[in-house]
Amino acid sequence: MKQSPTPRRTQAERTRASREKIIRSATETFAQKGFRGAKMADIAKAANLTEPGLLHHFPSKTHLLMEVLKERDRIDSERMRATLQQNGNHLLEASIELVEHNQTVPGLVQLFNLLLAESISADHPAHEFFIERYQREREHWVQAITQAQQNGEVRADISAETLAILTFAMMDGLQVQWLMEPEKIDMSELYRVMMEMLRA
Amino acid sequence: MKQSPTPRRTQAERTRASREKIIRSATETFAQKGFRGAKMADIAKAANLTEPGLLHHFPSKTHLLMEVLKERDRIDSERMRATLQQNGNHLLEASIELVEHNQTVPGLVQLFNLLLAESISADHPAHEFFIERYQREREHWVQAITQAQQNGEVRADISAETLAILTFAMMDGLQVQWLMEPEKIDMSELYRVMMEMLRA
DNA sequence: AAAAACTTACCTAGTGTAAGGTAGGTAAAT
DNA sequence: ATTTACCTACCTTACACTAGGTAAGTTTTT
């Protein structure tokens, strides 16, 4: 039905396609170089545009970064929600699946790891984004863990908040080692061991 | 005994003092901005030098970074060795003290965290440094944990290598959260909880 | 239905500035 | 007499972003 080859049809369509392509290449570039190391020219080229072409869609590098992060956040939350539901709200199982999934997208894992580390400086554009993200996620997990403790799924001799923090720490820390030596580190297996330690 | 005020005495002394001052300010700057974000001019100014003055002592930014890392590594290994010895080779206790110590030097913790994240790209000057460092430390810990397992100090139902990886992951991950919200996260307390889980 | 008016997606060319590093010198220490 | 520590002045490149234009798509007017 669609006439595809060279001429892309409506303007709305072209715009959407361009923005998507830009976000995709920006995601890759930020993942590999971080915010400060990524060059607008590289991102533009990877999206088949010139630099001003890129800037037509996103007014500055900072804006672009924030859009990339928001987009990823949206996709990931949605994914987690779905996985949780699919696993009958069993948090431990769902989170293991999340880690397994992460093992298939090293680029994205690296994106968040690197930007997270960069963003610890208070003057980084994503500083607040990550602080808010952690707080939000932590609250979410504290709730879920509390429930799992009441169900007898998770050990109750340690507070839900402590468990939430430890779990995040483990996820983040494993990611770093996995990114450094992907063949050596079996991230999801290791995460599973940790989860066993948290069982009631 | 030393005549201190304005004129620093011998050249050897001046050189050592300058290099130390440079390393100190470079450490701070790299910690706050990462390698790519740190500017030679800032480092130079913080060391009371001009840029070429700095470059007289370290021929390039990359050289400077490597010196900073090697220096830290030296100090930290020495510290760990001493602490271990002081604690009668009890690894768990010694590592808790290490984490407590880290809580007093956020700048250094941030230095390693940020550079570690940056260095995951294969073209980063510190890429190999960190891979080697991890391997070395892991081996060291595997040995120590194996011994602790034989002494009945540490649970033996999980392999020493797995425990080593998990411990590092936890340390790194806790550091990130602690750096983001220092008042909220009691890093050494949380680490202690983890260590309890590893007890036999 | 076609022309006119406008909006959008991009481009080429250029700007300002920052940043790593060099050249070559001076003055103090050895 | 020579080496060392450091400076001023400069160079080159890189990079985020602007100015101003063209051509295609879209809406309005007749």
Choose one word for the global shape of chain A: elongated
> In the CATH classification, which architecture of chain A applies?
Orthogonal Bundle
User: Quick check: average pLDDT of chain A?
Assistant: 92
Please, what is the CATH homologous superfamily of chain A? Tetracycline Repressor, domain 2
* Relative helix content of chain A: over 70%
Structure summary, number of beta strands of chain A? 0
CA radius of gyration of chain A is 20 Å
User: What percent of residues of chain A are in strands?
Assistant: under 5%
The pair of chains with the biggest contact is: A-B, 37 and 37 residues
- Whole-number tally of structural domains of chain A: 1
SSE class of chain A = mainly alpha
Q: How would you describe this protein?
A:
The structure is a homodimer of 200-residue chains. Chain A is built from nine helices and no strands. The first copy, chain A, has 200 residues and is an all-alpha fold. The first copy, chain A, has one domain: Tetracycline Repressor, domain 2 (Orthogonal Bundle). Chains A and B meet through helix 1, helix 6, helix 7, helix 8 and helix 9 of A and helix 1, helix 6, helix 7, helix 8 and helix 9 of B. Chain A binds a DNA duplex (30 and 30 nucleotides) through helix 1 and helix 3.
What are the SSEs and their pairings?
The structure is a homodimer of 200-residue chains.
Chain A: H1 11-37, H2 40-46, H3 51-57, H4 61-86, H5 91-102, H6 106-118, H7 127-150, H8 160-180, H9 187-198
Helix pairs in contact in A: 1-2, 1-4, 1-6, 4-5, 5-9, 6-8, 7-8, 8-9
The structure holds a DNA duplex (30 and 30 nucleotides).
